[in-house]
Specification:
Blueprint: E1 6-10, E2 13-17, E3 22-23, H1 26-29, H2 33-45, E4 56-63, E5 66-77, E6 79-83, E7 88-91, E8 98-99, E9 106-107, H3 112-126, H4 135-138, H5 143-146, H6 152-156, H7 174-183, H8 197-211, H9 215-227, E10 233-234, E11 242-246, E12 256-259, H10 265-269, E13 279-281, H11 283-294, E14 298-299, E15 302-303, H12 307-314, E16 322-323, H13 326-329, E17 338-342, E18 346-351, E19 356-362, H14 375-387
Parallel strand pairs: 3-5
Antiparallel strand pairs: 1-2, 4-5, 4-19, 5-8, 6-7, 9-13, 10-13, 11-12, 14-15, 16-17, 17-18, 18-19
Helix pairs in contact: 2-14, 3-8, 3-9
């Protein structure tokens, strides 16, 4: 970890202020500039050609308090619609397209889960939430999980046994959606890893029950406001990058071309503030989020978690985060790197072993969703790993 820059007294304790991010040269960060040039070149290939991996992309990477790469390519808005007859996007006139910029906001999709997880660990640190408490102790009416003894830890580690999702978007109203969630039991043996959006939806409901505040307020008060993450919040986000021309049969709802409203159908059906999806942000804000966790929970004068609780989040089995996933972390994996991906084309990786972070924001679902392809994410991460001079 980088050295701490100042001290101050808070509540009778001496608190240390962690360095804030700054833009500087790769050399100042202990990174090889040649390898970072390759990283930037690779980022530009992601948006090139008639059928790019993403319409637009922003990549930000650094080490310690230094941002060494901040690059945008392609378009935040490129297509007017999707044409299923030709399986191509209907291009907007060039003058009507919106170029991607380093400060462009994107629909984070499942990166939202990381913020929900931090909000939960904050409650664990305060003693208002028991990590091994049964969910039924907080939500007794949710008999599907209560009767099976599902715990908070199992929600955070995706070991509850709940299926990946439910068709909440097809329910006629909120009461029907809640009824479906309340009755849903695990479909796999609790304790076995099965990634599920339902875990974070239930975790949201637990947090809201014990705090008396909605998730958007918990995230703002506990994470984004103290860290100065002014671009981060639940939608709508009118200037964000466009996502999908969402129509059946390829999607689960008929909503047309989406921009600034959550892409995930269940999150939309639940009002846009959801534990598994719904946040919008830009690369700089997410770099602050990564830097905070790499610095043990502090950024500048703010502390959102204690170091022991950050360690709890980032060590096996990890709470909310994926660990050492070569599929999207490339050669950053293998030393305890933590991160997550989002369906819309987003990802972040932070590597405590080398004090590095990598943010990739992209709208791969513009103009239409496609099967996930993590190869570009892994390639960028490998370039960053190889750039570390004293690994």
């Amino acid at each position: 970890m980088p050295s701490l820059e100042s001290e101050r007294g808070v509540g009778g304790r001496r608190e240390l202020s962690a360095p804030r991010l700054r833009v500087d040269t790769p050399e100042r960060a202990g990174l090889d500039p040649t390898e970072l040039v390759r990283l930037v070149d690779e980022a530009h290939t992601l948006t090139a050609g008639p059928h790019p991996w993403a319409a637009g992309a922003v990549v930000m990477a650094g080490r310690g308090p230094v941002i060494a790469v901040a690059e945008a390519s392609g378009f935040a808005v490129r297509y007017a619609s999707y044409d299923p007859a030709t399986d191509t996007g209907v291009e907007l006139p060039h003058a009507a397209r919106v170029p991607a910029a380093v400060d462009t906001c994107f629909d984070l999709a499942s990166l939202t889960k990381l913020f929900t997880s931090v909000a939960a660990v904050q409650q664990i640190e305060r003693g208002t939430l028991g990590i091994d408490a049964r969910v039924g102790a907080y939500l007794p009416e949710f008999t599907g999980v209560a009767d099976h003894g599902v715990t908070v830890r199992q929600l955070l580690t995706h070991t509850s046994g709940l299926r990946p999702e439910l068709p909440l978007y097809d329910c006629p109203d909120d009461s029907a959606r809640l009824a479906l969630l309340r009755a849903e039991p695990p479909t796999a043996e609790p304790g076995v890893h099965l990634y599920s959006d339902l875990n974070m939806i239930l975790l949201q409901l637990v947090l809201e029950r014990i705090s008396g505040r909605t998730l958007d307020v918990l995230v703002e008060d506990g994470i984004t406001r103290p860290l100065g993450m002014t671009a981060t919040g639940f939608g709508p986000s009118p200037g964000a990058a466009a996502t999908e021309d969402q129509r059946r049969p390829w999607a689960k709802a008929d909503r047309g071309m989406l921009r600034g409203v959550v892409h995930d159908e269940n999150a939309f059906a639940l009002g846009g503030v959801c534990g598994h999806a719904g946040l919008f942000s830009n690369a700089r804000d997410l770099a602050v989020f990564c830097r905070t966790l790499l610095a043990g929970g502090s950024y500048g004068p703010a502390r959102i978690l204690g170091p022991d609780f950050v360690e709890l989040m980032l060590t096996p089995p990890a709470l909310g985060f994926a660990l050492d996933q070569h599929g999207f972390m490339g050669e950053l994996a293998g030393r305890g790197a933590a991160g997550h991906t989002g369906f819309t084309g987003t990802s972040l990786v932070l590597d405590p072993a080398t004090d590095t972070f990598l943010i990739l924001l992209a709208n791969t679902v513009h103009p239409r969703r496609r099967p996930p392809n993590n190869t570009p994410r892994a390639t960028l991460a490998t370039h960053l790993s190889r750039a570390v001079r004293d690994a």
